[in-house]
Amino acid sequence: MTEITSPQNPRLQALRRLHTRRERPPTQSFLAEGEDLIDAAREAGRPPLEGFRLAGSRLGPEGFHDVAPKTLAAVSGLGSGARVIAVYEQRWGAPAGPLCLYLHGVGDPGNVGTVVRSAHAFGASCVALGPGCADPHSPKAVRASMGSIFAVALARVGAIDELPGRLVALAPGAAEPLRGPGAGDRAGAPVTLLVGAEREGLPAEILARCDHVARIPIASDSLNAAMAATVALYELTRRPSRVPA
Amino acid sequence: MTEITSPQNPRLQALRRLHTRRERPPTQSFLAEGEDLIDAAREAGRPPLEGFRLAGSRLGPEGFHDVAPKTLAAVSGLGSGARVIAVYEQRWGAPAGPLCLYLHGVGDPGNVGTVVRSAHAFGASCVALGPGCADPHSPKAVRASMGSIFAVALARVGAIDELPGRLVALAPGAAEPLRGPGAGDRAGAPVTLLVGAEREGLPAEILARCDHVARIPIASDSLNAAMAATVALYELTRRPSRVPA
């Protein structure tokens, strides 16, 4: 294939637009930069719609476009420039159990990406995004997910009655600490864990409609949304049996 | 006090130098920008060595220098500019129990700051920094700590025999999952939790000298160092008693 050298190349112009939210509407595409993310997509069985690589690098699958170094650097969102950039289809589904994680008003893309990574790490079935959440397909969120964006099911949720199973909300002021399923609980019964923004938390009208409201026991004021979600996913997937350390 | 208008003002020149690592040697000072961090310092009982505020804003304690808007913006490390910037003394001590967290080779300042925040949240007694760790007093680490930098005891450690108590290392490939103190364990016996860098983990010679090596049970490849440390601190400070959720 011919090497792309012009920054005015229409494919590269289209690629550049994916950096901004306006050009990334739901059900459309998003981009991933760098070998690690491209590898994660391949491992998750997600084929690229289109790819661009440093001319001569032979990175990525057959069919990726060779691009001159300066031209590729000009469309990269990374400070150091990426050697490979690919475009993927966004995939959205319905929120699903057995362990769904719902975020509300988490506006920082780094936090949303970190939560996606934690959801993958602890085997959550879905990350459902409510109002006010950052776009999980923004370049910053995709990078923070470390490739987990390709492996985790995503849902967009307008009202919490769309969420599956028992609704367990995190709130710093709750009376009870969060506890994973005890020996008496029905194994595998679906649960949605609800997490709000760092300062505001979940709105009162959502808390009022949850089956259980719990806190993570901490000594200081706060954990950020990503850390709270990570600890809660750990607790909810923790095996009840105790092995002495 | 007279308003500072010149960027060549020697106090501001000294302040600007604190943004870079070379000018922030151990036992010297560091800077914090923004009302939230200045408030966190005050709450932790850490007096500023010197402070600068937007002229007319009356932010910060008596004695802060009033600075013209453009001049203050020019010394701020924040994109949006800070309305108040203060300089604080670095405080370093010896690593101490009952729950010490040791980081090894964690080079990202955002991760180090997040770990400091988690250490504060879960009441760890100390964050001990080994070779290859980012400076916890860099502006990025200070911001990521969300003010916990003022509340958590810090230590610098050259060899792990300086660490207190039983040494518990996190390693992704360990056979046993990490478990907090069981009912039969001596309550309050000092422990140091050791966490390595995201990809490299802890060096083999350190793992070999630990009393226990454990993993956090996860489904996917990895957690970053800050998330792993956060979950481990949660597990180690978790109450053994189980309350059905």
Radius of gyration of chain A: 20 Å
- Please give the CATH class of the largest domain in chain A: Alpha Beta
Which fold name fills CATH's third level, the topology of the largest domain in chain A? Answer: Alpha/beta knot
Low-confidence stretches of chain A are none
Q: What fraction strand of chain A?
A: 15-25%
Which protein chains make the most extensive interface, counting residues with beta carbons within 8 Å of the other chain's beta carbons?
Answer: A-B, 45 and 44 residues
CATH structural architecture of the largest domain in chain A = 3-Layer(aba) Sandwich
- Provide the CATH superfamily of the largest domain in chain A: SPOUT methyltransferase, trefoil knot domain
Characterise the protein shown here:
Chain A is α/β, with parallel strands linked by helices and 245 residues long. The first copy, chain A, has 2 domains: 10-89, 2-Layer Sandwich (60s Ribosomal Protein L30, Chain: A), CATH 3.30.1330; 99-237, Alpha/beta knot. Chain A is 24% helix and 20% strand. Chain A has helices spanning 10-17, 35-43, 69-75, 109-121, 139-144, 204-207, 225-237, and strands spanning 29-33, 50-54, 65-67, 84-89, 99-104, 126-129, 154-156, 166-170, 176-177, 191-196, 212-215. A 7-stranded parallel beta sheet of chain A has the order 7-6-5-10-8-11-9, with helices on one face. Chain A has a 4-stranded mixed beta sheet with strand order 1-4-2-3. In chain A, α4 (109-121) links the parallel β5 and β6. The relative contact order of chain A is 0.15. The A-B interface holds A 114, 117-118, 120-123, 146, 148, 151, 168, 176-182, 184-185, 212, 214, 216-224, 226-227, 230-231, 234-235, 237-240, 242-245 and B 114, 117-118, 120-123, 146, 148, 151, 168, 176-182, 184-185, 212, 214, 216-220, 222-224, 226-227, 230-231, 234-235, 237-240, 242-245.
